[in-house]
User: Fold Palmitoyltransferase from Felis catus.
Amino acid sequence: MGALCSVIKFENLQELKRLCHWGPIIALGVIAICSTMAMIDSVLWYWPLHTTGGSVNFIMLINWTVMILYNYFNAMFIGPGFVPLGWKPENSQDSMYLQYCKVCQAYKAPRSHHCRKCNRCVLKMDHHCPWINNCCGFQNHASFTLFLLLAPLGCIHAAFIFVMTMYTQLYNRMKIILRNKTSIESWIEEKAKDRIQYYQLDEVFVFPYDMGSRWKNFKQVFTWSGVPEGDGLAWPIREGCHQYDLTIEQLKQKADKRVRSVRYRVIEDYSGACCPLNKGIKTFFTSPCTEEPRIRLQRGEFILATRGLRYWLYGDKILDDSFVEGVSRIRGWFPRNCVEKCPCDAETDQAPEGEKKNR
Assistant:
């Protein structure tokens, strides 16, 4: 406790005012944005955390951020060190070799200079840096230099993550364009295969808009004029297919979703918070990484769940006449521990455990 009190002094707390300056605000903002975006890209898009490479990559990103901030704050708060007020050399005869500072009322020690910003004589002064809102000198020269070294290295790592993320997105985008699909249509096709396999049907789903040629598919999107072909309402289809094959498959999937959905009753109120702290640590840290909404729940309501994760479910609230006219449906994510399966469904159905993609 004594050691802690010796560090946390009023003089040290006064140094916090150095943060209230455009230099530290911009520097810390850039560090926060780059670090956060690199970590988000690393987790969501580029390298899965359950792999060894993904774990090492994520730990390295955190390590860069910690080391950069550690050296940055050291350079800012430890400071360069100042010539004591009223200082003079031990041997009074040496004063003839020194400059005298009228502001500090002291002699300037060798290699020290007076800083007009700090209003003090700085030991081994290099320069006054606006990014740390302090001087670079004797005590913080090493920390400041390490900050300048680590920041570009961390930026290079983050840039690599950004480039790989964009490359991955571009690769996936071109792959579906060359098959004349969209991301949603690729997902529909994947679910069509799952539906046929689940029910063991004697069907084969053929995507109707794939022209069978990558060049023809490419020209459906990219043209010399910049205007895509067609009117966006009717599309050329491959031989043997129907104009509405895809929409027919969508209707089948929606009917199948209604059949396989599970009815739940709300047993605990839920405010609709994205990461609720009062629903458990696991629920808090496993909140779905999606822009889909969360829905507010009240005890006694009923939900028709269509898909889910281990600690979260997604579904439609079963509306009654008390809801505002014009509201056709309320759907979104909600914590699994806020609901219980209705007895009538518990005997025949299984709760949705997950899906291949969250959108």
Notes: The mean pLDDT is 85. The first helix runs from residue 2 to 7. The longest strand covers residues 302-308.
